[in-house]
Amino acid sequence: MVEEKRTIRLKVFRFNPVVDSEPRYETYETSWLPSLTVSMALDQINRDHRANIAFRKGCREATCGACCITVDGFPELACRGIVKDGDFIDPIQGFEVIKDLVVDRTKSTSDAFRKIKYGREGQPIGFVPAKAEEIEVSRKLTICIDCHGCNSICPPMLYTSEKFIGPMYMLNIVRSMFNPLEDYDRVTQAVDVGLYNCTLCRHCTIVCPKNIDVADGIILARRRAVEKGIISDGVKEVFENITKTDSFSGVSVDERASWAKGLNLPKKGDILLFASCHYTATEETRNILKVATVILQSLGLDVAYLHEEEPCCGAPLYLYGYEKEFGEKARKTKETLDKQGVDEILTLSPICTYAFRELYPKYAKNFDLNVKTFIEVFAEKLKAGDVKLNSVGKKAVVYHDSSHLAKFLGIVDEPRQILGSIPGVKTVEPRYYHGINAISDGYMAADKDVGLEIAKKRLEQLLDTGVNTVVTTGASDLEWLRKAAQSLGRKDVEVIDLIELIGRSIKEVRQNF
Ligand code: SF4
Ligand code: SF4
Ligand code: FES
Predict the structure, then answer these.
(1) Is 210 close to ligand 3, i.e. is its CB under 6 Å away?
(2) Which ligand 2 atom sits closest to the C-alpha of 170?
């Protein structure tokens, strides 16, 4: 029988700005017991090693929010988070360190509360009745314990704080917006402090120790903003693009469908390849569609394609708060798919997959099509031994999880299995945000500078591994990472779609390109 390990080692961030020029990590060994919380472990370390690590303690029962720190990249309440061997213990991100794990929250809070104006300047707007679902959301938001965990992992707040106030503070505004007793204009205020620069990455929702769905609250607030016509310019542009060109990017239908010329793809068929506005938007990504189609054909999968009739899935409408318009789009798209006799949709774009899988069944009655991503289909074929990948030479790559693929659809292992099957390819993982990152959401920020800043920070995290070939999945991630490399002047960095790499490792496909 294997002896259970009785001690663990933790790497703790140490920094005293009064005497230290640089922060450092100290490794401490401490005795382990089941359900050892971070707080308990730090107490033990201070007692046994005389380490004098500064950290906050309060209620010790997950109700005061004082103790929030970062455990292996994720915010956690120290009194509730369980530690494991090898964890990095850091202060929450985005705040000035007072000492070790204690940060100064006062500046952020007082700046934000000045903007929120609880003193209620301006004219009251009168009574606005709230819908039942809005009251329900408002009620749920009241259990926030102000721990700052969501703020510390919110990309637009961390990297462009002047353009987005942060989830914890936005939640305060949304709560008031849906409070039937509130009679001040919280919608205009929310838009002014960045309602449309939240990228809806859902990091806040994922990490909240109180299970508050902050992101859902933001979507509801956007619906209110749409009802009142208080919409930022970036969002108006996307709405007009979808209305006029049926594509979020505004690229004409002929240009979007041009990639399929000469491939003889039928319009009707059991399996429909949904090319998406994302992959059809540029010459580079349209080429990836060709590679994907040839790979599928090499696997014996003949797909149909709607050509000029392919619509935008409408996901941006939903996320920007155009709920009625999204519902109409979902129903119309279902009619188009039914007309073509489609049984299964094969997607490349993660956000379209999310829309078809999660949103369409709620908005288009009887929508029950099987929706699979290219990556899932390919991983299945690989597992079944139906395809063998050849060497592309010795190559170290760092994999960037597409936000929607990993967080919304849970597709984390499949891309790694595919990479692991290419002889000579070694996959390196970035230190943080494995499966939780935000680049592809960046395009959801109305202010495009927000998306670029997020992408630059993410690229830096990826390059910190020492590897300069980045592999990702999804046209948005690809586009933003390439823009980030350009903006950072990193000509040595190669960013490729996993589909391109698969194409290079299959002889019959490689010969075609
Ligand atoms: S919403 Fe959740 S994570 Fe954010 S401050 Fe409140 S309790 Fe903490
Ligand atoms: S969804 Fe993402 S961008 Fe929006 S508030 Fe939450 S963490 Fe910030
Ligand atoms: S000590 Fe109060 S929430 Fe952890």
Answers:
(1) no
(2) 5
Tokens (6 digits) for 470: 């980045």
CATH code of the domain in which 318 resides: 3.40.50
Q: How far is the CA of 202 from the centre of ligand 2 (A)?
A: 5
Domain that holds residue 504: 382-510
Q: Count CA within 13 A, CB hemisphere, residue 488.
A: 22
What CATH code is carried by the domain that includes residue 503?
A: 3.40.50.11810
Q: In this structure, are 300 and 332 located in the same domain?
A: yes
CA distance 267 to 60: 61
Ligand lying closest to the C-alpha of residue 218: 2
Is the pLDDT score of 126 beyond 90? no
Is 166 inside a domain boundary? yes
Q: Is 67 in the pocket of ligand 3 (CB under 6 A)?
A: yes
Q: How confident is the model at residue 183 (pLDDT cuts 50, 70, 90)?
A: confident
- Percentage of residues of the chain with pLDDT beyond 90: 72
Residue nearest to atom 2 of ligand 1 (CA): 208
ipTM exceeds 0.95: yes
CA 230 to chain CA centroid, Å, is: 25
The alpha carbon of 216 and the centre of ligand 3 are apart by a number of angstroms equal to 25
Domain contains 238: no
Ligand 2: atom nearest CA of 200 is 1
Q: What is the pLDDT of residues 325-334, one digit of tens each?
A: 999 999 999 9
- Round to whole Å and give the CA distance between 505 and 477: 22
